[in-house]
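User: Some background: our group keeps a shared notebook of sequences we're curious about, and every so often someone picks one and asks for a predicted structure to add to the entry. Today it's my turn. The entry only has the sequence so far, pasted here. Could you supply the structure so I can complete it?
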Amino acid sequence: MRRKSLVEHVCEYCDKAFLVKPCRLKNGRKYCSIACRHAAQIRPMDVRFWEKVDKSGECWLWTANPGPRGYGLFSRDGEMVIASRVAYELANGPIPEGMEVCHHCDNPSCMRPDHLFLGTHSDNMQDMVRKGRKARNDGENNNNARLTWAQVQNIRERYACDDVTRADLAREYGVSWPTINAIVKHKKWVEPTPEALIHMEIDALRAIEEWEQSLPEVRVVAWSGDDVPF
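Assistant: Of course. Here's the predicted structure to add to the notebook entry:
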């Protein structure tokens, strides 16, 4: 049996010549060994990271996995991490324990280093509330609300001054007696002070953070590729 001819090809990683079947070259073989192929595919982390960032605008936008609430996720050392933390560390070094990465630009998908700064979790939550990035879900902001603030004010004024019962008001406004009772006693539809509002929002955000931390950790397992011909 005649042996099929081999051709010489230069490895694109180590620059050494090796013999290979022509059909393998047509199928895209570029390296002399699996080791060279793996080494060529392992790129520096900063290269992998920044190629996923669009730097064409004022904010440098993350274009890969958007992650929860648009903050972006990046695979590092076999696990998914928030992309903005990686951007900050590449520019400024390690992040101290207990510190979070915040955005001057209020754009969670922005990776531009000079738009990022460090703060505690409390700092981050208060900054989010002050800048209005956490939507309120009370009063008229609640999609299930059947009253307006003007109607609530009218209910309280009429109950305080007129000879009207809570049952009458409930029938007139199409809500339940317990709702009217909670309104006239200021247990519902309460306008909090700005300071109280910040604490309320922070409590809600902490509840969301605790729920997210309770989710199973997502890990990325590296593929060895040993079972696939090179």
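Suggested note for the entry: The CA atoms of residues 59 and 118 lie 18 Å apart. The chain has nine helices and eight strands.
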